[in-house]
Amino acid sequence: MTNEKMEKNLGRYKARVAQIRENQDLSADARLKYLKEAHQEAAAKHSELFEAQRQQITARGEKARKAALGPPTIFKADRAAVAMSYRAALDQVSSVDTADGLKETLKWAELTGDEVLAKAILFRGYELEDEVVVGTYLESFPDDRAAWDEFVDAGQQYNDFEHQERMFGQLGPEPPRELGGVG
Predict the structure, then answer these.
(1) Cα separation of 87 and 121, whole Å?
(2) What's the structural domain count of the chain?
(3) pLDDT tens, per residue, the chain with 183 residues
(4) pTM
């Protein structure tokens, strides 16, 4: 959505630059003044839209992260109690640093029906970047697959956005050639 707005902003800017250039009633100084104003306004709008896009992508990522890695939702359970149990389970698995150890603990969690411990294992597997542990969890808890996929997709979108920004910056509208640009 924001990219469309950026394209519209750029289109309006180009049209305004063309209109200023075509206006034969303007002196050279007035033309430069109006071109500079048009560029400044379009660049400011682009920056605003760019930041809005960053905020939107970040918010999506945070929401997806909470859904994928936050405490499990247990029907008719007290949320505060589940959160406390989840923190305790996270602490319990934080010292486990091998895939075998996590998979063994996941087996115990499945055997005892401990969804909280299982979710903590997913979190720890993610921390360790262990795709086998994450995959094993998702095989055992397929209802969590959609939240995980959204988390991965949101993360990829964020990484792509950050990469684009590092490579190209904000790439706002190019100043018109009259102001030293190529546009």
Answers:
(1) 12
(2) 1
(3) 567 888 899 899 999 999 999 999 999 999 999 999 999 999 999 999 989 999 999 999 999 999 999 999 888 889 999 999 999 999 999 999 999 999 999 999 999 999 999 999 999 999 999 999 999 999 999 999 999 999 999 999 999 988 887 776 667 788 888 888 766
(4) 0.78
**What angle, 0 to 180 degrees and rounded to 10, lies between the N-to-C axes of helices 99-112 and 115-127?**
160
| Amino acid type, 2 | T
CA–CA separation, 54 vs 169, rounded Å? 13
Scan for tokens 């500079």, then name that residue.
Answer: 36
At position 43, the amino acid (one-letter code) is A
Residue 128's domain comprises 2-179
Asked whether 140 and 40 are in contact (CB, 8 A), the reply is: no
Amino acid at 123: F
